[in-house]
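Technical note accompanying the year-one report. For the benefit of new consortium partners, we illustrate the data format agreed upon in the data management plan: each record pairs a sequence with a structure-token string. No post-processing was applied to the example shown here.
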Amino acid sequence: MTKRIPGLNLANPVHLLAFGFGSGVMPKAPGTWGTVVAIPIYLLLHELSLLPYLIVLFVMTLVGIWLCHVTANDLGVHDHPGIVWDEIVGYLITMIAAPSGWVWLLVGFVLFRLFDILKPWPIRVIDKGVEGGLGIMLDDVLAGIMALAGVQLLAYFIP
């Protein structure tokens, strides 16, 4: 069952994307559900070579800053938990040049969620100190970069 969120209109494409195609309305752990939505998106993109993958990711990040800003303003809440486009982008960052296979999809998922939930320095500072769509996106971009480092280290040491 989903919850009603004042100001949210999933018929509005901006809200629909910011809320991860509706995953952000889940009553429990919307960020985790948003990350789940990122997996099929990653599976569509993972066959791209590195440069096109990075270009798509860069565009998704820029679009995300705008989506998150507009949706947060429409809802009247700076970083509503249901706004999960940032989790989608964060997971896609985590999976840059990741090894193939379901194990790596799961490793990336777990590492990204850990960094996103625990918010170690400097993620917590950014989360608290940067406003607007940029602030909403930036903490998850950093969590994605930290998780990316973890995936790459594991892939290096675990053949």
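Partners are asked to follow this layout when depositing records. The mean pLDDT is 95.
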